[in-house]
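My main concern about presentation is that the manuscript never shows what a single data entry looks like. For the editor and my fellow referees, an illustration may be useful. For illustration, here is how one protein appears when written out as sequence plus structure tokens:

***
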Amino acid sequence: MILTLNKKCFLKILCYELRRALLNRLFPGLLLVNGLYAWFLLSYDIVLGTAYTAPFSVWSYCTYLGRALPVAAVTVLLMLSNYYSRKQKQVEVLTAATPVPPFSQVLIRTLAAGSCFLLICLVEIALSLLFYIQFFRFHDFAAFILPTLLLILPCFILINGLGQLLGSLHRSLIYALMLPVLALHSIPGVFDLFGAGYFSTVPLTLPVGADGEPAFTVSAAFTATRLSYAALGIACICLTTVLSARKSRKA
């Protein structure tokens, strides 16, 4: 009976938070900003190609996505900041009395923020595909799938985890996190969270193939770093759950 009640409450709160996130009056504007910025990148940057590769190469596509992701990450942080406002804290007094445990509450926030992030990423990806089809008559997008997942999943998990953890400590820390997210948007090497720095420099170090471009490859070190970022984000989510449980007991 308790498990069934928890499931019902979980789904009800999840639907409420999804509507709240996607119908937030700020989100359409933020989605528009992300879309305009993505098209600007495609039209004035990626159209020239990355590191002497074609604009529609996987190298150029990953560089584009890596340069667009910081704005998407800041959007997620702005959406998460709503959960730590004074009004939300008053609501948490009521939700703390529900049978939904702290882990489920954190999971609901993650799914709600994830829905916003996913929608932004879909817009950015759709714009890139439209750009490649319209200007280059390029349609072979199968090679983009795995690099896309490798870029966006660790990025979201880490940003979401850090955002919730810092927000549980103080809301202003979420805004403070936005500064390094934008400032460190392109770091050469495997530690680049968004990947733009990595994918725009590695082609210059590889031999050129028969088609005039280096073959697309991702180093084991870069992949391991992405997995480490995802693990760190999960650890932050778990720590947020612990802090939320302590606050619930004190309440």
In short: Residues 1-5 have pLDDT under 50 and may be disordered.
